[in-house]
Amino acid sequence: MNELGGYAFADLQVGMCTTFAKTITEADIVLFAAVSGDNNAIHINEEFAAGTIFKGMCVPKTLFELMTWGPPQDLVPDQKWAQGRR
Predict the structure, then answer these.
(1) pLDDT tens for each residue of 11-35
(2) Alpha carbons 48 and 67: distance in angstroms, whole number
(3) Domain boundaries, the chain
(4) Four-point Cα dihedral 32, 38, 43, 49, nearest 10
(5) pTM (2 decimals)?
């Protein structure tokens, strides 16, 4: 592990693993809706969402994908690798 708390690509080995946990809050969803324009009622209106098969608000798929994409990249702070260059 380097001084930034991550690994260079060359230092990664088979079998290495990590964990990441994040509780997605209503504030996360509301802020995401504001910047993305995704104002679907299933995401931002609890009263509406309660009447759906989900029984409550759902996290936008794109927000979930973005939150799961960032943490692995934080482990490899080698900018050339992150940008697809070697």
Answers:
(1) 888 888 777 788 999 999 999 999 9
(2) 25
(3) 9-75
(4) 160
(5) 0.61
3-class secondary structure, 47: helix
Topology (CATH) of 9-75: Thiol Ester Dehydrase; Chain A (3.10.129)
77 neighbors 6 (Cβ within 8 angstroms): yes
Distances (CA, A) of 38 to 31, 34, 52: 10, 7, 18
CB atoms near residue 49 (< 10 Å): 17
**Angstrom distance (rounded) from CA 32 to CA 36:** 6
DSSP 8-class letter at 23: P
Calpha distance 31→43 (Å, rounded): 11
